[in-house]
Design goal:
- The structure is a homotetramer of 406-residue chains.
- The radius of gyration of chain A is 21 Å and the shape is globular.
- Chain A has helices at residues 30-45, 62-72, 81-86, 102-111, 126-141, 156-166, 198-201, 205-221, 355-370, 378-396; strands spanning 21-26, 52-58, 76-78, 92-95, 115-118, 146-148, 173-181, 225-233, 238-243, 252-259, 265-272, 277-283, 292-299, 302-307, 313-318, 328-332, 402-403.
- Chain A folds into 2 domains: 21-151, NAD(P)-binding Rossmann-like Domain (Rossmann fold, 3-Layer(aba) Sandwich), CATH 3.40.50; 156-310 and 312-351 and 376-402, Dihydrodipicolinate Reductase, domain 2 (2-Layer Sandwich), CATH 3.30.360.
- The first copy, chain A, contains 10 helices and 17 strands.
- In chain A, the strands form 3 sheets. Chain A has a 9-stranded mixed beta sheet with strand order 16-15-14-13-7-12-11-8-17. In chain A, strands 3-2-1-4-5-6 form a 6-stranded parallel beta sheet, with helices on both faces. Chain A has a two-stranded antiparallel ribbon with strand order 9-10.
- By secondary structure, chain A is of the alpha/beta class.
- Chains in contact: A-B, A-C, A-D, B-C, B-D, C-D.
- Chains C and D meet through helix 1, helix 2 and helix 8 of C and helix 1, helix 2 and helix 8 of D.
- Strand 16 (328-332) of chain A pairs antiparallel with strand 16 of chain D.
Chain lengths: 406, 406, 406, 406
Amino acid sequence: MEQPQPSGEPKTRPNHAKPPLRVGMVGYAFMGTAHSQGWRTAGRVFGLPRQPVLAALCGRDGAAARAAADRHGWAAVETDWRALVARDDVDLVDICTPGDSHAEIALAALAAGKHVLCEKPLANTVAEAAAMARAAEEAYGRGRLAMVGFNYRRVPATALARRMVAAGRLGTLRHVRVAYLQDWLTDPDFPLTWRLRKELAGSGALGDLGAHIVDLAQHLAGERLAGVSALTETFVRERPLPGGAGSGLTATPAAGTGTVTVDDAALFTGRFTSGALASFEATRYATGRKNALRIELNGERGSLSFDLERLNELWFHDATDPGAEAGFRRILVTEPDHPYIDAWWPPGHGLGYEHTFVHQVRDLVHAIDDGRRPDPSFADGLQVQRVLAAVEESAGKNSAYTPVTD
Amino acid sequence: MEQPQPSGEPKTRPNHAKPPLRVGMVGYAFMGTAHSQGWRTAGRVFGLPRQPVLAALCGRDGAAARAAADRHGWAAVETDWRALVARDDVDLVDICTPGDSHAEIALAALAAGKHVLCEKPLANTVAEAAAMARAAEEAYGRGRLAMVGFNYRRVPATALARRMVAAGRLGTLRHVRVAYLQDWLTDPDFPLTWRLRKELAGSGALGDLGAHIVDLAQHLAGERLAGVSALTETFVRERPLPGGAGSGLTATPAAGTGTVTVDDAALFTGRFTSGALASFEATRYATGRKNALRIELNGERGSLSFDLERLNELWFHDATDPGAEAGFRRILVTEPDHPYIDAWWPPGHGLGYEHTFVHQVRDLVHAIDDGRRPDPSFADGLQVQRVLAAVEESAGKNSAYTPVTD
Amino acid sequence: MEQPQPSGEPKTRPNHAKPPLRVGMVGYAFMGTAHSQGWRTAGRVFGLPRQPVLAALCGRDGAAARAAADRHGWAAVETDWRALVARDDVDLVDICTPGDSHAEIALAALAAGKHVLCEKPLANTVAEAAAMARAAEEAYGRGRLAMVGFNYRRVPATALARRMVAAGRLGTLRHVRVAYLQDWLTDPDFPLTWRLRKELAGSGALGDLGAHIVDLAQHLAGERLAGVSALTETFVRERPLPGGAGSGLTATPAAGTGTVTVDDAALFTGRFTSGALASFEATRYATGRKNALRIELNGERGSLSFDLERLNELWFHDATDPGAEAGFRRILVTEPDHPYIDAWWPPGHGLGYEHTFVHQVRDLVHAIDDGRRPDPSFADGLQVQRVLAAVEESAGKNSAYTPVTD
Amino acid sequence: MEQPQPSGEPKTRPNHAKPPLRVGMVGYAFMGTAHSQGWRTAGRVFGLPRQPVLAALCGRDGAAARAAADRHGWAAVETDWRALVARDDVDLVDICTPGDSHAEIALAALAAGKHVLCEKPLANTVAEAAAMARAAEEAYGRGRLAMVGFNYRRVPATALARRMVAAGRLGTLRHVRVAYLQDWLTDPDFPLTWRLRKELAGSGALGDLGAHIVDLAQHLAGERLAGVSALTETFVRERPLPGGAGSGLTATPAAGTGTVTVDDAALFTGRFTSGALASFEATRYATGRKNALRIELNGERGSLSFDLERLNELWFHDATDPGAEAGFRRILVTEPDHPYIDAWWPPGHGLGYEHTFVHQVRDLVHAIDDGRRPDPSFADGLQVQRVLAAVEESAGKNSAYTPVTD
């Protein structure tokens, strides 16, 4: 399903006759902070049919949750997600916890008649994701929506890329090459945080970064991967234990070491259903690359290229230009007729990472108001999970090409 | 979830014993929208000593002002700025109107015991700016601060550049070359909005874009311009009259034409007090350049280069590197030890244009809390005005080199 | 005149007491033209111990060969390569023919006591390449050298990269990602030239582009690939037959179609012997990419990045720089202490593609004069061939990981 | 072998019935080396109507000249330029000496019935240049041509830019901004070579770098500068005396110091005859910029941008593209329908600095064969000299705007 065209924003004021959309959020770390910014800001910028209300935030540590709620502007606090899900004054549950709790919370929230926004990856296993997708479909019949948070679809440049691919500007697709490169594990003394332990994190670079690029590649291509061939690697297998609290990505080493049980890097090639080829790389060891999600699509009529480290730019090669004048052009995606932009700033005044969460809220609120299936749905999240499972399977059987099951 | 929570800044909660900072804003167009975002967001991200409160917004058209207030989150509305200035529940007046009203409002607000934040350029004339600077200095004696809104000092990359220059990383400065290139006037049928009429706008590209680059160049260099030699030009002298409302930058043409009375472009060279050379260009006719504020500084020990169209990057050449390994390096200014960043997102997750206004609020609130003179002060705004006046004087006398007066 | 004379290299004149190096070249198409430029120019720029002499050129069409010889500066002409090999006035045979004739000519030339320079890929099969490597080793015992023409090792930027890796600037290597992207087959009406027929060309993008990047990746990494997992694809299987003469890459379509029997694209991942991961892509369908050989190496202490479309630049990230100042730096590889440069032009005056052939001649002549094994040797060419064979094998058995045999 | 042979150009062999063009060159330093490469190579690559012959080289030091002649491939040697000019076996005199001897040699060579190629700047004074232009015009009546060596017109990218401007792709021109940035003087201990002494060099950055950019700007714009306003500066006025021989750009310091009597940097703004604005900067103090000749032209319908440090690229913004898809496109100027390219390599296989000299020879030989006035002529060189004189005059009278005289 294509995005509603984020056009001609709020020349008229929203209809305040409609009830607000009361949100309860579980988790308040990195993603909770980003989502809070999205919920707080979307209605200030876009003319939304229903105004989001930051009703309640949930965290196990009551004092910390209260502080976070004050900080980010949430009215109430809960310390048990079940209590949050049970609140009458919550219309939508926003799940920003680690992946191992997604399924349980989402299923309960849908059962309780809430809309759900769930961070990616949808779940840590295909089975969980499948249950969630079934529940989401069932809830849709009752008018409740469930969206998975693949926010990188909502960078204006990637949204423009999707629009151009859908309009046929690339013609028959031949190649999609995509990498998500970070470098925060290059230091072998970085400690063994929960992100490096399979029992907690599910997987390493694959689930964290790979999920994003599998979704984005399939979304931009407008088609699915048929199969994959994969290698994964853990470069540093013993790391110092973490001292003190820390989070997934920051910590100080303590005495003793432990074993890393997730992948540091995953490389895979694949075939799209149309026959186009794809190559993927997800790593936390690309020294000097901080958040380099790069994707390039080559088609018979043109190519598109994007790098998240320069997120206001989309590069387009139009192969139908006269040969002597053809070249990759740097489209500064800040024009009023670019996706999402007319609600923001004048041309050349760039947006940042967090705006993807504002756009996510915008699109979700519209979908709820329209009763349309959200995009990406839990079914989309499930399908990404199936690709990741095929990657792990292939990596486990000597890289043999492994079909993605339906 | 890719990476950890934004750590740094507010490890401890702000001291809520301190009173909030109640803001009254005049004007609600482009700048008013950006400032609203700044006031709303700063306290959510940074640990501020006093929490900003969006107390009242002022606009002449009551209904429109009310709608804007609702939209942007302002509590009350006024239709006369004098009434806003008189309100007891306003501690700070934020002036987002066109330049011709800055002086009158700022002087009244300071006289009424308010802190003031005033958009750039500080005023349309040196005389007005001088009166404002005097009033600001007098108010400072009474504990009231006055800041001018040169927000481009607060891009993390430019703030880092300033830090590096101050630390001596460039050594003796030789060259500063700076341009602010836009292209919204290249169409000769773009209508004669108020921005193209001297009686309203004061000047054209010079006051609008030139003020920014003169301030930024002097700020980064850490010294002032001693004199300038200038050319200005109005390429298209007759334009269609605008139809309907429109704003300074958007409008539809109507019947009839009128005369453009401001500059379309201004080019000037100059000398800094140290003897370093500077070149400036401000234009609205640089086809394809949307918001290209570019500045490069060359010193004996190194160089820095920045382009606002890629605002998360600062380029640095360290001339003390071994020759075979030296080169301009692209610093992605998203690391926790870069200015402002530790309150935001993990490395590589870039910021946008509007964040400069959040940072401006942060710095202003701290300055008020500390009782420090704000940076940039009205005196700084006055000095920029004197440079612009010297530019106009030089342009009017055959480009003769014209000293900047104190 | 901007800058000074090219100093460095030949402060002393070459020793003309030494005999010239008389060259006989087989083939005079694209590679023959490039090699001619190399042989003609190297002695004019570098102070060579022996002066190359363009003794004889060989081509089957006598008139065409004569014209090419006149054009490129070769003294004599032969129409049978056996006659060329037999000439007493030829010291070195330079083989610029298609791959299917490399083995026969090289073996004969070595047997005749000539030095040999052979274009890449060394041969169309591992068996041929192995025979050539054996013969080269045997000839080395008799003082005759055999080099394979992987010219991309001799871009100053790649040579600098090798020097930096060898000096430990990257530390432990983690990733090598490399792609060679061209786009001349995107038009489905491009005709079925000999390059698209397996019986003539051996393979498609794999042997043509893949050979270059396998060699370059291993050379820069300083280690070999242990195994690979591969996908290959032929996107367009029926193409118009070519009309008229044409060459491999240019032709006009004629009536009728034929079947493409080589790969259009090859993707493979792999492991280096050290455990570093590698990803490779070779394609003729990357719309808008003309000659984009891109390689990036990530190590624990730093990263290097190169793109042949900007061949005068090498990007280096030094992870030991202070965090706030670290970034990929663009080294303009035109300084006198960069490889090959001091014989050329002042800083910033870039070189081009053909200079790799001049450098190849320079290095080969020095190796001959020194009696050192040339680099890359036929053994290196054989090893690349073995990697390509493993790629084909893996692609043929469902992408299963396939070791590279010794 | 990646791609096909360089086709295009010489489909037919040159007409060898025509006599060769016998060249005598005066000077053999940096420019002499570059010109030698041009004369040697042009006939090997392009199908020239007359084949250049490197007949004689002239230098005051006989042994050094002999060594240079051997090195670069010149047949004979002279130690007095008058003897060279008098030789019967010389058809064209190529002047690669410093500017103070250009006039004398050129006048003598034209008087002796030779064609002349003279390095830029044409002369050190307007008077000399005027005399040369008159002599050239007179010689043209006798079938003798005189060209000035503004080689940067002959980068394929700049030649393409000229073609696009001439075809109206930019529409009405508004801005030309151009800089030539080098950094070899940033070290204050670099010694006082002849290039820093006015009596020998005429001027500093202005004549050396400024001459190039004035010519290129006017050439690309297709119109002349009407007037300029200028600043010049000498940052370091005392430098160590040079020890030993050295050249203009390289030397080792000795005891004692001397006074720099030329400009280190020159900044000027100007107006074209059409009313377009121009800004120029020439400096030897732009730390980290090695040979950054950058030019951008903005017109009503489009813009072009070029940087000599990436000389295979031309950036083009087509303002008539649909807004949502517009952007500066990077044209890789290596396609067969780009200027000069079809005689060289396949797409993406870039050229370098020295190729401008090959193209210069190609164009000059064609002009001689056709009897056409060469481009740029001595009259063009004179006009550039007049601009430089206006720059110096303006700099000397407080930057007052100074018309360029005819």
